[in-house]
UniProtKB/TrEMBL annotation:
Alphabetical list of PANTHER family matching this protein: TNF RECEPTOR ASSOCIATED FACTOR, TNF RECEPTOR-ASSOCIATED FACTOR 5
Ranges annotated as spanning the membrane: none
Protein name, as recorded: TNF receptor-associated factor
Segments forming TRAF-type zinc fingers: 85-137, 140-187
EC number annotated for this UniProt entry: 2.3.2.27
Cellular component, GO annotation: cytoplasm; cytoplasmic side of plasma membrane
Claim: Zinc is one of the keywords in the record: yes
Length: 505
């Protein structure tokens, strides 16, 4: 036993005083202090005197020990053979090697588990003979195996292999197809078997269709031949016109040549005149140059003054532009603030604080055609009560789309939520009002299910809406016998919250 840790000695090392410790324990002694002493005799332990005791190590390795899987395994083996025994021990726990399986089993049970019990074992498909995990084999055979026999989707009572199904559909007698004489005007479309019978029994009718089509084609050919003859005549006339034009062009060419010769002569005359003018100008330039130079100087001075004035105006204009941009930004901010204030004032004017809301929905038909949800202005159960709003789907929501009006209620985040009891428990009544005066209103009520998140204290702007997806059908809403729910393309919806038991703060 190790004098330091009290356990069996692992990797024995001997000190200069002759005592044996675990290698780990003796290292801890040396590291803990430069003057560490042996706990048995108090002699100073020097690191250079510590060495591995191979003799003791050999004795320890020859000791017989029980298997670590005792009491299931009763074998005793030498310490040096313990690891070899564990690689064969039937009571050693191992993880199943099938991919995806996390079961831990004894070695003696592992083989049977992997072959017969494991949900991730591999078996061969009985149709295509390819290996698949047991958990996927049924889905493979039923959904994707190309060799599996499947029923024809057209109920022709035949079974074919899945990879041949597409080819079978192209020949299946139960598939709907057009008559082969469709291009000639036959409109019959039926199952392939019936179309075959139709093609046989209606042969004479089909012949008439083909003859009628050929007659139309013959008329078209005659018309095309007439058009071709007409175009040939026009082509001959145009060829004659081109010949006449060619003769005229030849005449023009000769005239043009004469004109070119005349132009050459005129150029020579012009060159002679230019030379005479240059000689005359050289005489006059000396006298005129002085007058023109003084005029040019005056013009340059005037231009310089105009440039300086223009630059000054440009700088001033830039400063004015920056000021204008700053004023424009401030004006945009003011306009945005005014719009926000105006929207808030409108909400305050239409907000009720008694748990009731009369919601006027205009342009009903346009909003229904758009298929988008509508949200009412918010209302409250009291000055410091719950904040709520209604939501309507004129064209229906979910499975009711296209058939019903859907109405819901939403609990919204309010300023006084921290002072109110949660979850929301008050009964809610949704009503579509009769505008005929007969008071045949349509109403539905519900009491909140306090286990649903929709009635707990909101953490966002509003909770999910809950209510009635099939509140009233479009037929009953738009064409009732004893009421008028839509007048002037306007619908009125009333929401009433039972405020019994609520106290305003």
């Amino acid at each position: 036993m190790c004098p330091a840790c009290g356990g069996a000695i692992l990797n024995p090392h001997q000190t200069g005083c002759g005592h044996i410790f675990c290698a780990k324990c003796i290292r801890m002694f040396i590291k803990s202090s430069d003057t560490s002493k042996c706990p048995l005799d108090g002699i100073l332990i020097k690191s250079e005197e510590v060495f591995q005791d191979n003799c003791c190590k050999r004795e320890l390795l020859n000791l017989e020990v029980y298997c670590s899987n005792t009491p299931d395994c009763t074998q005793k083996v030498s310490l040096c053979n313990l690891q070899k025994h564990l690689t064969l021990c039937q009571y050693e726990t191992l993880q199943c090697s099938n991919p995806g399986c996390t079961d831990i089993l004894l070695r003696k049970n592992l083989s049977d588990h992997q072959r017969n019990l494991c949900q991730f074992r591999t078996e061969f498909c009985r149709h295509c003979t390819k290996p698949y995990p047991v958990t996927q084999l049924t889905d493979h055979e039923q959904m994707s195996c190309p060799e599996a026999e499947v029923q024809c989707p057209n109920n022709c009572s035949q079974t074919v292999k899945r990879h041949k199904l597409k080819g079978h559909v192209d020949e299946c007698p139960e598939v709907e197809t057009d008559c082969i004489y469709k291009q000639y005007g036959c409109t019959v479309r039926d199952k392939r078997s019936k179309v075959k019978v139709h093609e046989y029994t209606e042969f004479s009718h089909h012949v008439l269709l083909v003859l009628e089509s050929n007659s139309k084609l013959a008329k078209q050919v005659d018309q095309l031949q007439q058009d071709l003859a007409l175009q040939e005549r026009e082509l001959k006339e145009r060829n004659l016109l081109v010949a006449n034009l060619n003769r005229e062009v030849t005449k023009c060419d000769s005239t043009f040549s004469a004109i070119q010769r005349s132009v050459v002569e005129q150029r020579e005359c012009v060159s002679s005149v230019k030379q005479e003018l240059q000689e005359l100008r050289s005489v006059l330039d000396a006298e005129l140059a002085k007058e023109e130079l003084s005029d040019l100087r005056a013009s340059i001075d005037s231009l310089r003054q105009q440039v300086a004035m223009t630059q000054s105006l440009r700088d001033h204009l830039g400063a004015l532009g920056q000021t204008c941009q700053r004023h424009t930004r401030l004006l945009d901010i003011h306009v945005e603030q005014l719009q926000c204030n105006e929207q808030r004032f409108r909400q305050l004017e239409s907000t009720s604080y008694d748990g009731k809301l009369i919601w006027k929905v205009q342009d009903y038909q346009r909003r229904k055609d758009a298929g988008m949800p509508l949200t009412s202005p918010p209302f409250y159960t009291g000055r410091s009560g719950y904040k709520l709003s209604a939501r309507a789907y004129p064209d229906g929501d979910g499975s009711a789309r296209g058939t019903h009006l859907s109405l819901y209620i939403m609990v919204m985040r309010g300023d006084f939520d921290s002072l109110l009891p949660w979850p929301f428990r008050q009964s809610v009544t949704l009503t579509v009002l009769d505008q005929s005066g007969s008071r045949n209103h349509i109403s539905c009520s519900f009491t909140p299910d306090t286990t649903k998140e929709s009635f707990r204290r909101p953490t966002a702007d509003s909770n999910a809406a809950l209510g009635f997806s099939r509140f009233i059908s479009h037929t009953d809403l738009e064409g009732p016998r004893n009421a008028v729910y839509i007048r002037d393309d306007t619908l009125f919806i009333k929401v009433k919250v039972d405020t019994t038991g609520l106290e305003d703060l």
